[in-house]
Specification:
Blueprint lengths: L11 H14 L12 H8 L3 H13 L3 E4 L3 E4 L14 H7 L7 H10 L5 E2 L12 H12 L14 H15 L8 E4 L2 H11 L6 E6 L8 H4 L3 E8 L2 E2 L1 H11 L3 E4 L13 H14 L3 E4 L24 E6 L11 E4 L2 H15 L4 H12 L2 H27 L4 E2 L8 E6 L5 H10 L2 E2 L1 E2 L9 E5 L5 H18 L2
Parallel strand pairs: 3-14, 5-6, 5-8, 8-9, 9-10
Antiparallel strand pairs: 1-2, 4-11, 6-7, 10-11, 12-13, 13-16, 15-16
Length: 478
């Protein structure tokens, strides 16, 4: 935190240089790291740009920072002039780690998301007003006095919750499974990470939809996997493309989000689901079916699961409460053969010794109380209203800028820009208009697409955010 005292007798530029020197010495800015631009820091501190220039000049003169035209201002990568001792080069450690950082635009979106004055059309979560707090409060009261809180943790997950999920899968999706074939995870993404680490090896080939939110996850690249794209049309991916990839690259796993796919909201047709399940079984290619959105259908049934067509245990199924209850309920589950469950469970135990019992108790009480379906019904009605508002505004005010298909479920509208704009430029200009957007290139598409989320904002905020987005397009496309 910067502390600038404009009433102090010490010059402001000296206050800035002293505080920056202190931040560098303490490792907040390690050697080689990029410092804020003069203009950006001046705006942040509420001072003239020339004041920041003066401060940077002083630190440059003692060899603490380096300034190069076109490369910005960086902390010196050599021994620092202000200290006779060496210092650990943390930037080298950070850059050299095996787990890759997120896409630069994702990093920028995360940075913008911390500013609550901006309207967020980028995130993939429900808005806080959609969280079922009134329904969950009675569950909290039961749980706080529950003896289960003090029981030894089950590394596979709280058994009553696994039994509740098995019942849920049978009643809702016509999938027969047992508690022994279910593993509770901290959201679906933990299960994906565990699978990449335990079931695959560096150099293995996998197939994912294109576009797909999987492209925004660095965990595949960090695991050294080769990623191949499966194009999506109006019926989802084509099984023939999977066959071709297998013949050419011997893909070892197919990751799919087949119902209201993120980001396109397209669903895999029933015919292709069956064909794909049979094809992958015959080629011994496991399918990971990620299903966060199927309950969020705005026009009746969302279609069957691929898992319901699986006769050989070849489909690994991922479920989650994140998109129906909230991202703060970090409960996901994996349905898989027991040998897979055991392998992933052993690996997870080495990471965190299992999942906290409290969220599992909350999830079990909520899902088994009958309140869960009541909440989902109300949630779908609210989301449908927000979708309709967004679609109406887009059709009325964005005809010159985008084309799209109205989604039948899920949380997103996939926009195609009529006039492509460089993604970084679009993100920057949108933020200047107080709105955050998700460029499609982050999700594996070419530039000229946006994933628009209508679930985070209440109706009046959604209207204001879309107006800000319209103004962004108007300022860029003339």
């Amino acid at each position: 935190m910067w502390k600038i005292n404009k009433k102090s007798k010490q010059p402001i530029y000296r206050q800035i240089s002293d505080q920056l020197r202190d931040k560098i010495t303490k490792g907040e800015y390690p050697p080689g790291s990029l410092l804020p631009t003069e203009r950006k820091l001046a705006v942040e501190l509420g001072v003239n740009r020339s004041t920041v220039v003066h401060a940077y000049d002083e630190l440059t003169s003692v060899g603490l920072i380096e300034r190069k035209r076109g490369s910005g201002t960086k902390v010196s990568a050599q021994k620092w002039g202000i200290s006779p001792t060496g210092s650990t080069n943390w930037k080298a450690y950070v850059d050299g780690g095996a787990f890759l950082p997120p896409h630069p635009l994702i990093q920028k979106i995360h940075e913008l998301s911390s500013d609550k004055s901006l309207w967020n059309l980028a995130g993939g979560e429900l808005g806080p007003d959609l969280f079922p707090d009134s329904l969950l409060k009675p569950q909290y009261e039961k749980i706080l006095g529950a003896e289960e809180l003090f029981e030894d943790e089950d590394p596979q997950g709280y058994r009553p919750l696994r039994e509740t999920i098995a019942h849920h899968m049978k009643e809702v999706y016509h999938v027969d499974t047992t508690a022994d074939s279910i593993m509770i995870t901290s959201g679906a993404q933990q299960a994906i990470y565990l699978m990449t680490q335990c079931l695959l090896s560096p150099g293995d080939a996998i197939a994912i939809e294109a576009p797909s939110y999987y492209y925004s996850l660095p965990l595949f690249q960090s695991a050294g996997l080769r990623i191949f794209a499966l194009p999506i049309d109006e019926e989802g991916i084509n099984p023939e493309d999977v066959k071709a990839l297998y013949q050419k690259h011997r893909i070892k796993l197919v990751f799919l989000n087949p119902i209201f796919q993120n980001p396109t909201s397209v669903s895999l047709s029933e015919e292709r689901k069956k064909e794909l399940v049979d094809l992958c079984a015959s080629l011994s290619i496991p399918i990971v079916e990620d299903n966060p959105f199927s309950l969020l259908s705005y026009e009746g049934e969302s279609g069957s699961l691929m898992k319901s067509k699986d006769q050989t245990g070849n489909v690994l199924y991922l479920g989650s409460l994140s998109k129906t209850v909230g991202s703060n309920i970090r409960i996901g589950w994996l349905i898989a053969p027991k040998t897979v469950i055991q392998r992933l469970m052993d690996a997870r135990n080495q990471m965190d010794f299992g999942l906290s019992i409290f969220p599992q108790l909350v999830a079990d009480h909520f899902m088994s109380s009958g309140k869960y379906q009541e909440h989902v019904d109300r949630l779908v009605a609210e989301l449908k209203e927000r979708r309709d508002i967004a679609v109406k505004i887009l059709e009325r005010d964005f005809k010159d800028y985008v084309t799209f298909e109205t989604p039948h479920g899920g949380l997103y509208i996939w926009l195609r820009l009529k006039t492509p704009i460089q993604d970084s430029k679009l993100l920057h200009h949108a933020a200047n208009h107080r709105v955050i957007i998700m460029p499609g290139s982050v999700l594996g598409s070419s530039e000229g697409y946006i994933r628009l989320t209508f679930a985070r904002l209440a109706n009046d905020e959604l209207e204001a955010a879309l107006e800000a987005l319209r103004q962004t397009f108007h300022s860029l496309i003339k």
